[in-house]
Amino acid sequence: MFLNIITHPEYCYLTKNDILNCIVFAPTGLCKLRNLQELDLSSNSFEGFIPSCLSNFTSLRLLELSENSFVGTIPSTLFVNLKSLEYVSLSYNRFEGSLSFSSFSGNSKLEVFELDSHNNKLKVDTENPPWTPLFQLKVLRLTNCKLNEPRGTIPSFLLNQFDLRVVNLSHNNMVGEVPNWLLTNNKNLEFLGLRNNILTGELLLHPNSRNLDMFWLDISMNQIHGILPPYIGSVFPMLLFLNISMNAFQGPIPPSVGDMRNLDLLDLSNNNFSEEVPEQLFMGCVSLRFLKLSNNNLQGQLLPAKSNLTGLLSLYLDSNHFSGEISPGLFNSTYLGLLDLSNNSISGKFPDWIGDFSHLGSLVLSKNAIEGRIPESFCRLQQLNFLDLSWNNLLGVLPSCSNLSSLKYLHLQGNEFSGPLPHILSRSSSLVTLDIRENKFSGEVPNWIGSLSGLRILLLKGNSFEGSFPPQICRLKNITIMDLSSNKFSGPIPTCLSSIALGITRAFDDTFVTNTYGWTLYRSFRTYSYESELKVNQYVMGDFFTTDVEEEIEFISKSRFESYKGNILHYMSGVDLSCNNLTGSIPSELGYLSHIHTLNLSHNHLTGVIPKTFSNLKQIQSLDLSYNSLSGQIPQELIQLNFLSVFSVAHNNLSGRIPDRKGQFATFDESSYEGNPLLSRPPPERGGTRSTELSQLTPDWEESDSFRERFLWSFIGSYVVAFIGIIVFLYLNFYFNREVNILYLLKQKLEFKTSRTIV
């Protein structure tokens, strides 16, 4: 239903049984129904403001307006006269402005209040003006709000609530210690969500307490520290969902976690847990489907040999200190769809039994010490979507029997794989990322690579590929990042590269967006019932979602390795052809890659001039043409590149003057131009007279031949002057010495005559 409930001019007067028709066809007629007790407009497309006339519905017990497009401020007087209200839901609209909870101060019957502001623009104040609740809530969902700004305090009225069943205060930037008193005061609490706040302190539980109703506990994304209470499993034995990730918990994982036999999801990731994972967890949590222990300091063997996690679908043990071989304890988890053991100290051979996991869609074993060849049993993994074996000690090639038709992301970087590019990849029509950097692959790039029409990222760096630049790559019309550096490619750069739509933002699809597992849990209340003629059903909905392993790419940009992850890859583009044996001139057609961000052609044998068409690279951030044999001038038009932050033409044969120090070119220092002795450089900047000084102090040689001629005549003139000077010096020196010798002989003769006369 699409209508604006404020501006519709019509009226209607219908019986109570036709109330919904009245709302649909003449919304202003709604204001005539003052004896209305239940109003449910949820999950429609209503727009505009909440009608102020609703404050006259003094008999209203239920007000359900969630999942619409209502905007503006929630009227401050809306709830003052509605003394009979028991149920209020305003979630998932577009409200702005502010709401004070003091407007409920006269209401003694309120049991359910829900408000997820959805757009995080609504200010909610539960503290001012001061008030005392007359009601006892059973359900409070108050999320994604600007709560009690600027201090962000936890709502103090909850201290007087003792019958709460559902509390969700997630995504509110609340500050303070974790409210353990909520658990103490409300013995029948079923759902507690405090996700994504700034709570500190420790989670404290009484060792003798026991809550058989609690099924959802989410305190993730806070700053809670200390140890996880050792008796948590006996306090909450019926938990289905436990998420304490992204905090500062430390110490061991309590063995009592194994007492939670109904646990469906357990996320302890991104904390400081240490020691070994207790065997009780793997033996007792028989209902686990999702287990995430990533980014801790756990050690020991991955899983015990007698693991009883038969229903496990996703297992994240990455970024810990696990050692030894891949445990056969995984045998019992035959439905495993995701296995991430990356960034540990796992050693030994690639397990032959890995092929028994016929449902495996994501396998991540990167950054370990696994060695040897990939076994033939690997061929039974026919549903692989994501495979990352990078940075191990694997060798050989992928088994020829492999069926990789479903594969989208392949990472083999940093191993000892050798031989030509595996032909089995020619059947991977869904491939999006091919990363085989830093291996020992050789030979020419095969023609079939052009058939991988969906390929977006091609990384061949650091191998021994040879031959001319593979023109079949030009058929990869969806390519966005291409790294062919540090190989043995030779010959010219093909002009057809300009036909690739590098850097053009495409409509979002599932590329780079990995599979998402939603743990949105629905469960009817056991303890809250409300008899409604509209049959309003109450459910608990959690907001936790888990994702598959993220696609992450490293690429040299701005002269350093950058890591790009997830959706940012939609906006990144670049070509790196550096450190090869490429020859010939730079095709001017490359200047038509107007959306590219990075272009690196350094350390080749390229000749000719820098194309003036490079001034069309309006989005480029890094341009490296250093260590080639380029000649001529640097095009002055390049100063139009407003996003350029890294620029190097060092160690070429360029001449003339460098571009004016304007815009981004005012940020480049001597290192960008060094190794070009015929380049003339402007003087340092001195206030606002830079241009005048530049023209006065720097010769404006427009042609390199003229410069060479002037340099030659200047050298010859200096040589002639120096030669004449040497001759004159030698002559004067000889004449001076001759005169000195004559004077000396005359002196000797005079002294001899004088001595004879005296005698």
UniProtKB/TrEMBL annotation:
SUPFAM superfamilies: L domain-like
Main location per the UniProt record: membrane
Lineage: Eukaryota, Viridiplantae, Streptophyta, Embryophyta, Tracheophyta
Protein family per UniProt: Belongs to the RLP family.
PANTHER family linked to this entry: RECEPTOR-LIKE PROTEIN 12, RECEPTOR-LIKE PROTEIN 14
InterPro entries attached to this UniProt entry: Leu-rich_rpt, Leu-rich_rpt_typical-subtyp, LRR_dom_sf, RLP_Defense_Trigger
Gene Ontology terms describing biological process: defense response; response to other organism
Region Disordered, residue ranges: 672-695
Provenance organism: Forsythia ovata
Name of the protein in its database record: Receptor like protein 15
Topology with respect to the bilayer: Single-pass membrane protein
Keywords assigned by UniProt, alphabetized: Cell membrane, Glycoprotein, Leucine-rich repeat, Membrane, Receptor, Repeat, Signal, Transmembrane, Transmembrane helix
Cellular compartment(s): Cell membrane
Transmembrane regions: 711-736
A cellular component term, taken from the record's GO annotations: plasma membrane
